Amino acid sequence: MQERIHGTVMPVLELTLDPGEHVVAESGELSWMTSSMTMATTTQGAGGGGVFGALKRGVSGGTLFMTSYTPVNEPAMIAFAAHLPGQIFPADVTPQPGGGYMIHRHGYVCGVPGVTLTIGFQQRLGAGVFGGEGFILQKVAGQGRAWVQLSGEVITYDLQPGQVMRVHPGHVGMFQDTVQFGITTVPGIKNKLFGGDGLFLAQMAGPGRIWLQSLPIDRLAQSLQPYLPQPNGDSNRGGVGGLAGSLFGGNS
Question: How many domains is the chain built from?
Answer without folding.
Answer: 1
